[in-house]
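Please annotate this fold before class:
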Amino acid sequence: FTVLGTEGIGEPEDHYEQLECLKHASSGETFVATFSSNPGGSYSGILAWKNALEMTEAHTIAILEGDLASAGTIIPMYFDECHVTPYTTFMCHSANFGINRNTALNVEANAVFQAKQIKRFIRDAYKYFLTEEEILKILDGSELYLDEFEIQERLTRRAELMAAEAEEECDCEECSLDEEIVSSVVESMEE
């Protein structure tokens, strides 16, 4: 159990113990994180959480409460379940970034590179949660505000669409073998 609260999402080393615990958790375990009035945080911290959540075998649950912004809305997208408490709000936006003093050419190159990365990441993180129109507005610099009812409705829709996508992509025996084909192969083997 961990709380990602008002201090925001720090650098990966700030969450080292939680991330390692999550990465090494087994399929019978449950990892619960409370996002409580989280203002967002570091891009590298977000990526560390995303990667740990994708690597873990544990069942993951996010409890969402208060005002969540930026990274505070993105990390929950990678949990298996999200529980939205009353009066929870989301503020979704693109990213704020920059580098310290450097040459004009390096600053420009970094801005172009970061913009490309952020566009790809925003599309991945908010897939099925936001509409294409909303994603484009966010990438153009707008902020999107959602209340707990909108958040819950979108999380439910997202889960359904992701389950349908996973079912389409699944190539396991249960999903890909037609019962008639299996029966005919078994019968021919018995002859």
Summary: Residues 181-191 have pLDDT under 50 and may be disordered. The beta strands are 2-4, 30-36, 59-65, 67-69, 81-84, 89-92, 144-146. The helical segments are 16-23, 43-55, 71-74, 104-125, 132-139, 148-169, 173-176, 179-190.
